[in-house]
Amino acid sequence: RGEPAGTKRPPPLKALGDGFAYIRANGTIFTLLILAFAPVLLGMPYQQLMPVFASDVFDVGSTGLGLLLTFNGLGALVGSLTIASMTAFRRKGLLQMMLGIAFGLSLAVFAFGQSYIIALVALVVIGFVSSGFQSLNSTLVMSNTESAYHGRVMSVYMLTFSAMPLGVVPFGALADRYGAPITIGIGGLILAVVIALVGIFHPSYRHIQ
Description:
mainly alpha, globular
């Protein structure tokens, strides 16, 4: 369905400028893109620091590290499939907010739990909620964007993956100075607070469908 886009295309720089102007003028898309960057910068660096937890925090070696990553991956798989099956759920914005807050809090449990068993359970939850959050975010971005801007908006959205190293560098430096548990735990708590504040001060976000 839909009308043909036509054969005339604007110059690349004008198209790029139009895309940024569209994002800036669309409060829903702008909020969703901000929320796409927040977990990448504040939450996802835990993956790069997982070997530190395996060797220095839990002392479980390479086998224990493999289990940590496996439990995390299983949670992510189930989270993605669960979100894909929830096509009839109406309050998707509220659901995404809850998943984001749960992501931050479960990171804090993983970091401060001081138990390998607690860490395994927490990583299943982390994988589930983080994957669900990201899957839902990309779905909401696409469904709330006009078709003429799909490519440009999703190009900006894909920059979130490029931003991941920007979060890893300071997290690595902080982990060297203060320890990985404190760094990841506080990062998770800040992430939960940021997403909660977005939901509180932008109530329209909670009603995105």
